Every structure is written in C-alpha cells, then in structure tokens.
Amino acid sequence: MSDNSNHNQGGRPLPGAASSPAASAGSPAAAVSSDSPWRRRIIIAALVTGIGTLVSMGIREGMTETVYPEAGASKYFYVQDYSGVWSEAAEKYIFDEAVKLNKATTAQIVVMSVPGTGSDTLESYSLRTANTLGIGSKEKDNGILILFTTDLPHVRMEVGKGLEGAIPDARAGRMLDDYAVDAKNNRRWNEAAMNTFTAAAEAVYQESGRKAPESLHFVREVPEGQQGATFGDLRLPEGRPVTADEDFPTRLLNGFCAFLGLLILFLPFYLVYRYFRNLFSGGSSYSGSDYSSGTGYRNTRRSSGHSSRSSSSGSSHRGGGGGFRGGGASR
Questions:
Q1: Residue 101: Cβ within 10 Å count
Q2: What pTM value is reported for the model?
C-alpha cells in the first residue's frame, strides 16, 4: 500500500507527486535550460566582436598615414612653416640669426610649424624629424629643433646630444614656459617662434663662449598674421589611406586587431569600475576571478617670390648630420 501510494493503477505518477532529483537532472528540458545561458553569452560575444571589427575597419578606412617633413624640402633650412602662421619679418629674423649662429658656433637651430603630428606623439614626431633633418654638425651633435603644432597648440624643443649638458631638460622646459607657452596658447605665433629661438640661441652662444650679436633680441607686441605667402612656407602633402596597400583579408585582420587593442586599452578602467562597485555596494571583496599601434612622398614649397629678401638666400642650407636621442621638453 505504501509503495504504490503515489501511483495510480497504470503505474503513472499522480499529478501532485514529486519527481525524483535524478529524473529531473537527466531530462532534456533541464539540459536545454542549463546550456542556454552559455549559448547566449557566446552569441553575444560573437556579435560584439563582429560589429567591433567592422567598426574598426571603417575607422581605419578613414585614417591616413602620418607624413613627416623631408630633408631638403627647402633651401631655407632654418625656418620651415608648414602651417603658414609666421610673417615674413619673423621668418627673416629667425633665418638670418640662425645663419649667424651656425657660422659662429657650427650649431644649428631649426624652427618649424606643422598643423599636427597625425597618429604620432609630439615627442616621437619631433625626434624623428630632428634626426631626419640631421640638425647640427655630425661631429658635435649640436642641433636644436623647435617644433610648434598649430591645430592644437603645443611646442617641443628637441635638443641634440651635444647640447644636452648646456640645455638639460629642465632648462629647456623653463625656456618654453617663459617664451612659448603663453604666446602659443593665445596663438601669437610670431612672438612664440622668435622669442623661443632667441632664448635657445643665447644658450648656444653662452655654451660656446662667444658673445651673441646685438641683432639677437627678444620682441614684444610683434604684429601677428601673414600677408600672402612667405619664403618659409611649405606644404605637407595629403597622407595616403592606411589601408591603401591592404587586401580585404588583411583589412579584416587589422580591424580585428584594432578592436582587440581597444578592449585591452579599456580593460583596466572596467576592472577599476568593478572594484569600486563591489566596494561600495557591500559585496564581496574584489578577486582575480573577475579578470575575465611612411610612405614616400615629396614636399612642395609654395612659390612666393620673396626668396631674395633674406640674407644668404643665394645658397642652400641643410643639416650637418647631427644626432638626437630625445632630450628636451614639451609644452
């Protein structure tokens, strides 16, 4: 009687009877229920990865290669205005004084403006440009590059290996703070270029034991703006698309790698968020189980008709092969 109390005469369980745990665990419904969360997670992860890869591919399609100034782009080596922000009077002052400095000390100071540095950092762009131009003599490595970016105002003073003792990073930073930062932040480009160059040139004269010429001076309230093209004006060409030489499989792979790189970049922020969420929500402490990166091109100089207005304009100037290793300062 007791053995058949939960069954009717046909051997079937009564409607209200409880089923055994073994029967429940082995049923197909239980298997589907236990597997479905994992399937959903896999599908969601695949969709996110696919969409992220396609978005990364689209972003890369719109990107262009970073272009850099090229050695020999202009015979007016000491002043190179790729942004077109300096007046001819400012360019003439820098060029003439740079020629005098080179004759007196063999050192070379190049002042350059570019709209931006593309996908490169200011420091990396400046170091590569300084070494490409070979500023300073090869024997003394006594060159300086003063680089301004004008779309987002920044400035970098790149100091050659041979001048790092005379102009260490701290002194280069003070020069920029005193003569470049306020002027470039207010887009007084002539003032920023002329005074920063003057400060650097004075330091070079002091290091060489020579007296600076009286023509080397600081300026105040210098007129800004250009009136037409100037002899220092240069133009960087449009960069080629980064995907120009890639076939579709390569673009797909690079898109996936870019998406993966973004995930890795944002992972620390997510982990910090999880940590503080658990901390302030009264949950358990955070545990490790929650852890779940140039093509060839040619620079063209805008024709200006002003080449005869600067001293030494009949001769071409170029770098002497000086080397750089990253000394200097950025602001």
A1: 26
A2: 0.61
